[in-house]
DNA sequence: TTCATTTCTTAACTTAAGTGAACGAGTTTA
DNA sequence: TAAACTCGTTCACTTAAGTTAAGAAATGAA
């Protein structure tokens, strides 16, 4: 399981045996069952997550309705906003599938960064990459219709459509579950012609 | 003019006289007239911008139509995606108003980071803050209707609605100019009752 | 298995956004 | 100054998403 993590890290920096052991000694790995809630609205958690296997989602509850705004799958990391802001969380995080992830907190990051400055570099690169990706995603979302967004998702993350319930996908696309159903039927109808 | 920049930096790190001079010696400041295009689709620019005064916008041209996806005003910085990806730009950047900004390139950043490691720290903090803000923004966009988005903007950045043309605001809100007009009329109508 | 719950789809109706066209006000250009 | 543009608004019409409700299918628990 560790191998997945080290493979990922090796894309950004190379680690010595010592450094690997330092990481392993932190005991980061956790297995969580489908449906487990990792973070609740109102909590002041300090936990950061990195998904090794499985899928977790972020969602708000607005007027009693769940609004899923993000999914994180293999090789994707999530620093909840409350960790950065030190305020109570505005949202929930829970497991869509049985999931294996690493759980860290900012102090551990600081420790590692002091011992191994390489880490600071990797974190900066990761954060910049993520920001760039995020902005492109946001732009695509703004400039396209729900139908285009769905077709786009079908291209870019076909796995998500398989592994995630429709009603969660719907709010991820910014629409209601009924509209997603209808939209899918419409696309199917078009493709028949 | 420099004071604005140093005031901003001082929120994150404190600078010595030497460091200030090193920054000033780089000759970063540029004044640009309203309407000037800083970056065109297809270009491989290496320029990063930080707005000291004025307003710039990022827009795509899709099917011959301008789609504005972001505005950057005082104290906001922008690293175009093409700088990170080294690919031709997917979008344009131009000035909504007469604007004063700093223009840097990644090499200058690297130089500064080597001479003054503080800079690396500030960049990381900025990038993390920005990512967090960006994600909250995206979540809000996904979970609200065009009308809610407009009302939200009215709360959070009332200045934008004054200084930016309506048709640019419209695509920023993910809708057509006509729809924004109608939506505003609708809100006005409601508030009369 | 059976019952309850969740999830997905369908349908009818409402509401709002997209589209195409027209108009007036304000700007720019020749 | 006149013509050409740009910008915002309005209107009529089309299309798609929101809403409410109902029912079928899948899932989970007793």
In short:
The structure is a homodimer of 193-residue chains. By secondary structure, chain A is α+β, with helices and mostly antiparallel strands. Chain A has nine helices and eight strands.
Instruction: Give the termini distance of chain A in whole angstroms.
Output: 47 Å
Protein chains sharing the most extensive interface: A-B, 33 and 33 residues
- Structural class call of chain A reads alpha+beta
Number of strands of chain A: 8
Note the main sheet of chain A: 4 strands, antiparallel
The SSE order of chain A reads HHEEEEEEHEEHHHHHH
Can you characterise this structure?
The structure is a homodimer of 193-residue chains. The first copy, chain A, has 193 residues and is α+β, with helices and mostly antiparallel strands. Helix content of chain A is 51%, strand content 21%. Chain A is built from nine helices and eight strands. Chain A has helices spanning 2-10, 17-24, 81-85, 106-115, 117-142, 146-156, 158-163, 166-172, 177-192, and strands at residues 29-32, 37-39, 48-53, 56-62, 65-72, 76-78, 92-95, 99-104. Chain A has a four-stranded antiparallel β-sheet with strand order 1-8-3-6. Chain A is globular. The model of chain A has no long low-confidence stretch (mean pLDDT 91). Chain A binds chain B through residues 58, 60, 62, 67, 69-70, 79, 81, 84-85, 90-91, 120, 123-124, 127-132, 134-139, 141-143, 171-172, 174, and chain B through 58, 60, 62, 67, 69-70, 79, 81, 84-85, 90-91, 120, 123-124, 127-132, 134-139, 141-143, 171-172, 174. The first copy, chain A, binds a DNA duplex (30 and 30 nucleotides) through residues 145-147, 165-167, 175-186.
